[in-house]
Amino acid sequence: MRRLVAIVLAASVTAAPASRSAEAPLVVYAAGSLTGALADIARHYTEDTGQPVRIVNGPAGLLRERIEKGEPVDVYVSANMAHPERLADEGKATRPVVFARNALCVQVLPSSRITRANLLDQLLAPGVRIGTSTPGADPGGDYAWAFFAKAGTVRPGARTALEARARKLVGGPVAPVIPGNGNAVRYFLEHHEVDAFIGYCSSHDATPDPSLRKVEVPADLAVPVDYGMSVILRDADPARLARAYGFALYAMTPEAQSRLPAYGFRAVGATSH
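-> structure tokens emitted (273 positions)
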């Protein structure tokens, strides 16, 4: 909350009247898992303010590297707190605020026998193959490896066994090539490349995909999944910087936060998923 207050105070001293005339869009780099939810929020922001927003989605670690190389970005939203904290340490961004919360789910085909109660037993069953995102490049991969580590604390040997059968299929520097540019996780499951995929409980669309089933990991194996948002501090005119603060503040309003649950996220003020 102190960080949010800091952003509010900064906005109050830098804000300038926003023009509703044709303006260059604000550029927001955001985690790929936010594709649907943030587009929804940005669309309503533009309707309310007249200010256009261009969102670039991708693995948050790779987006952070692009910001560090100087790409012109106004707001950054990561699927973790570590990446925006690093930008803040480098003097490139404000200290992040928690924008949204998520949870880890195991994605499987509807025919799978995995349930929340038998999840760890099923993942450790002989021959089961597990897909993950890429640690380092994508926080989704980091969370999967954190889940493996936690499994090792409740079942001796589980961490080593899970890591040994995990395949880093998405979220790396090179996107997987799949026919039709569809849902990569669904493709790998339907083509039996893996039997389960460790990912987020959120979705790109407000309507759940009936061809996939998501099983949230049980409480004793859960890891916190917080999304951090920062305003990028770059050489830009004061009015543009004020617009960046304005968008970040709008994203924290009750109206904007109320759009998150439809996509499987938890609003910051909510107490449970």
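Residues 4-21 have pLDDT under 50 and may be disordered.
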